[in-house]
Design brief:
The structure is a homodimer of 285-residue chains. The first copy, chain A, has 285 residues and is α/β, with parallel strands linked by helices. Chain A has two domains: 4-112 and 124-143, Aspartate Aminotransferase, domain 2 (3-Layer(aba) Sandwich); 185-282, Alpha-Beta Complex (Aspartate Aminotransferase, domain 1), CATH 3.90.1150. The first copy, chain A, has helices at residues 12-23, 41-48, 71-79, 101-104, 130-138, 148-156, 166-183, 185-206, 231-242, 268-282, and strands at 4-9, 28-32, 53-59, 61-62, 67-68, 85-89, 108-112, 124-125, 208-209, 220-224, 247-248, 257-261. In chain A, strands 2-1-3-6-7-8 form a six-stranded mixed beta sheet, sandwiched between helices. Chain A has a four-stranded antiparallel beta sheet with strand order 9-10-12-11, covered by helices on one side. In chain A, helix 1 links the parallel strand 1 and strand 2. Chain A is globular and about 60 Å long. Chain A starts with a strand and ends with a helix. The model of chain A has no long low-confidence stretch (mean pLDDT 97).
């Protein structure tokens, strides 16, 4: 970053990215909006028009709020500005939702393996654009551990700069074979769509969905607790009696919302089973 | 660090720590000596007497050269200077060699699990001193990921700031039970001593040891290739015919030295078996 970084903030994880940017000594501003709203392309254009920024961070799928920001539309706006780099957090979306990294001009698209890849936590992955690698050469290094130049140098030799988490690499190799050759990418994305539609419909029938309409996540649904149920108690019964688990709301949204994940290797029947059990526990229908 | 950091350098990994310190924007100097020599306490005293430094980094066991620096003696010197923090890389030593972290006044003692803990790579551990936690509060944060304040805050709630590598934590828990309750710490240290003595004796009979006498590592032996054998070929035969593996020399020491690891869960009989096989291949004795 030569000028300033614009952090788009509408949830706990995008807020954290702003904090990380500041901690790393990168000049930055947050564009913060209400957490149940999505970032809109025109908001981004307005900020980029100032000419103050040459980097944008976006959390595609806010795991804290269940909001899926309109990545395609935002990326198209960023693309209009030649010198602006786009960094995307796709932690809870990659491998569950289609992301056309090259076409959208995303310079870095980060994900952890413990979400839609359905693998144990411990490894992060990211495609990186050529122009980001070029830019990284011009920037004084700020660390050894997160150093794109060093990573890329070792990558070209099929090595890693530091001893990697070997078991995770084997697991990733196996899972990528499964995703690409057995299930098929398009089938995987379609399965996430179906699961999301089922949970959203259920949520609107009995409660309400938290995010602004039209921006609901395909990988997890954040539900507004309009019935004032005890989410903690519901989750305890799910865990103790059925070995199932949902998530309470994140941080300040605890008990005001709750979240149901439908990602990774979860199947339509798993989701239907979970919702039927919740119906029983809460006496719904 | 308020003043400057002194990086003690006598191998590839201590050289890298100097580079890391500089990359992180911490003012620093390297005290560099020949790679087959050990850092001596009086060298450290001479530098600290200048009053320029308030932090020292030391690689206890240089995996690149098989040199074990005199940690106890160096720590005693550092302790004489009240305001100097001691950071120790114990990557290939912790859980194989006794390190009295509190008694020696080590402020941070880093290790990876893939060496003497005999676990898969992917997790680093470190005890941290109270005064380092206090100091961390006064220093402007330089990153989120390696932020002691944040880590400590979550540690106090038995949590981690980011999703941790869960499988590694279970493996560590299991292995710590084994080390402490089944094998016993002192037995583990004694086993490493025995294995080191066997390999060193073998090395001196047929070749020579690379590090200065008296400073040979207890966890791996770096052998000077005085016979001019092809280490690459020896290793290929070991791997293909016996499923065993040694290490070539590190970086510029390739083919000039080679390294035999005797750490982790390796037993005396494993080490003897390996050496007997090498004798056969090279026609030694």
């Amino acid at each position: 970053v030569r000028k300033k970084c614009l952090n788009l903030v509408n949830g706990a994880f995008s807020k954290r990215w702003h904090q990380i940017t500041a901690y790393n000594g990168v000049p930055c501003d947050a564009l913060s909006i209400e957490w149940n709203k999505a970032i809109k392309p025109e908001m981004v254009r307005e900020k980029l028009d100032t000419g103050e920024y040459d980097a944008v961070t976006l959390v595609f799928n806010e795991t804290s709020t269940g909001t899926m920001n309109p990545l395609k539309e935002i990326a198209e706006v960023v693309k209009e500005y030649d010198d602006v780099f786009l960094f995307v957090d796709a932690v809870s979306a990659m491998a569950g939702v289609k992301i056309e990294v090259d076409k959208l001009g995303i310079d870095m698209c980060l994900a952890g393996l413990q979400k839609c890849f359905a693998l144990p936590s411990g490894l992060a992955v990211s495609p990186v654009s050529e122009r980001l690698l070029e830019r990284a050469k011009e920037v004084p290094p700020r660390s050894y551990y997160f150093n794109l130049n060093i990573m890329h140098k070792y990558y070209q030799r099929s090595q890693t700069p530091v001893t990697p988490a070997i078991p995770h690499l084997f697991a990733l190799d196996r899972q990528l074979d499964y995703i690409l050759d057995e299930e098929g990418l398009e089938n995987r994305f379609a399965r996430h769509e179906r699961m999301a539609a089922i949970v959203q419909k259920w949520a609107r029938t009995h409660f309400d969905t938290y995010p602004e309409r039209g921006y609901e996540s395909k990988t997890l649904t954040c539900i507004e607790n309009t019935r004032g149920i005890s989410v903690k108690e519901l989750n305890e019964r799910l865990m103790n009696e059925y070995g199932m688990r949902i998530s309470n709301g994140y941080g300040e949204l605890k008990e005001k919302t709750f979240r149901i994940a439908h990602m990774g290797d979860a199947q339509v029947q798993d989701v239907k089973g979970l919702l039927a059990v919740i119906d029983d526990i809460l006496g719904l229908e």
